[in-house]
Amino acid sequence: MPGNISESAKVLVKLIEQLPEERIKHLVSFKDIQLKRFRPVAGISNSDEPAPKKPTLAEIKDIINRTKSPLGLQNDVLKKIAQATPKETFTVDSIDQQIKSLKALCENKYKTYYDVGNKLYRPAGNPNYYQRLLDELDGKRKENIFTAFRTVVFGK
Amino acid sequence: MSLQYKLLFSRTTNRYSTFQALSRTVCRSKTYYSTQKLNNDTKNSPEDLVKNSELKSKPLDFTNNAPVKAGKESQVILSTSNYENPNYQLPKWKEALGEFVVKTFRLDMDKIRAGPIAGSHYYGLCKVQGLQYEDKKLSPSALFFYEDLKLPRTFSQWFQITILHEWLLFVRMRAMPFKYGHNYQQKLVDRTFIDIERRLVDEMNVNSGRIIDQYLKDFNSQLRGAVFAYDEGFATDDITLAEALWRNLFGGRKNIDMVHLEAMVRYVRSQLYVLSKTSDRDFGLGKFNFVPPDEVVYKLTPQQESELKDKTIKKYEALDRDPHTLPSERSNLSYKN
Predict the structure, then answer these.
(1) Which of A104, A125, A133 is nearest residue B178 as measured by Cβ atoms?
(2) Nearest residue in A to B61, CA atom
(3) Is-cis flag, bond preceding A70, omega within 30?
(4) Are residue A8 and residue A65 in the same domain, yes or no?
(5) How far apart are the C-alpha atoms of B236 and A111, rounded to whole Å?
(6) Where are the domains of chain B?
(7) What are the Ubiquinol-cytochrome c chaperone domain coordinates in residue numbering (chain B) (predicted)?
(8) Can you give the pLDDT at residue B122?
(9) Torsions phi, psi for B314 (to 5 deg)
(10) Mean pLDDT by groups of 10 residues along chain B of 337 residues
(11) What angle do CA B122, B128, B129 make, to 5 degrees?
(12) Measured between beta carbons, which residues in chain A are less than 8 angstroms from residue B270?
């Protein structure tokens, strides 16, 4: 049922698109990578980047003939690389399960269920720890050289 | 599984705190199910969640170029020192001398205890969660991480699993009085890097001091990054925590199974819940153990919670009042929170 898979995948892609942006830039972005992964399943092209030009078979043969290593790879190595490249087969069930899990995460299911209260959110030893961290991330109040120095000397 | 390995396992499982004893009974007794109105989802342990995943994802790496081999010193979890052997009995005269010194100089036992509890006991707990050797059987928790979550069986993966568990403890240590909590954190981190240095030589056959230093610096920046990312996730929401786990524990792989992420978020949050219900005294004395991934943590009802608190208060009040309590067993940490 390929039609159904793409329908489910579309729901999943929509859900991933709604994920909040990261507060600071990381080497890899969960949202971008997962969008790239599921868009083809949903039949949507990854529009934001141009599709890489695929080399023709003649070109590949030419490269392998011309070079011995490292491009002219041994057959068994090529096979291993092909095996390692994740080739995924989705079913409607598996995608629905992905949607369910992602929804649970977006709804803060576990944060609300396992509520730890102010004992851990405003820890006695350093009550402003998380607030300072989040303020810095959101750009509300930047740390300056004095506050940084205070943290180094006094530890909080 | 070596003898020492077994000993540590049996010792740590016996050390379940009263909370965990209670939460286990909660799991078993059926009467609580109805009062808590749990839906089907919350009955699943993280391991059940992962095992029910329809997406049969495969491990990412096809060849393991750096398997961890047991070295000369890996027969023991912590060290060959007698003081870290759970079966070692201190000679009576040494014990008496120690108690005398503690009493006469009024030493702050909570400060002293940071070394043996955080640097040794808690480090051991964090270490065994993901400990694996190529030719040895995996422990139950390691089975969850390597077989169920399909993580690669490498040294750096072990490090990621270890720092995740250390971070869980850091969160609780921050809630202790600052001078003690900070000391506990310091001891835990110190011990981690001492042990990594030893393992790199002993198990990974890295003989160059310069390369070891490079690795240690690399691990240090990984630790800082992971603690920051997990803190952010902990303080904000589940999806941020999941992203932090994906970047660190799962190495940012593309073919991640969301069910695995959900299971790990559940794992982390449930451990933190148990930690939040543990009193400073219990935690400071090392009476905490991670809940295994195949067990479910149910929320305590207000009645159970007060029962638990009363029990802890009674226990430590009696201990503090008892004139026979040894000076080294005394503590100023609160047992009321």
Answers:
(1) A125
(2) A84
(3) yes
(4) yes
(5) 9
(6) 3-329
(7) 147-290
(8) 96
(9) -60, -45
(10) 34 39 38 36 80 75 73 83 88 95 94 94 95 91 92 92 97 95 96 95 92 95 95 95 94 89 95 95 94 92 93 94 91 90
(11) 95
(12) 110, 114
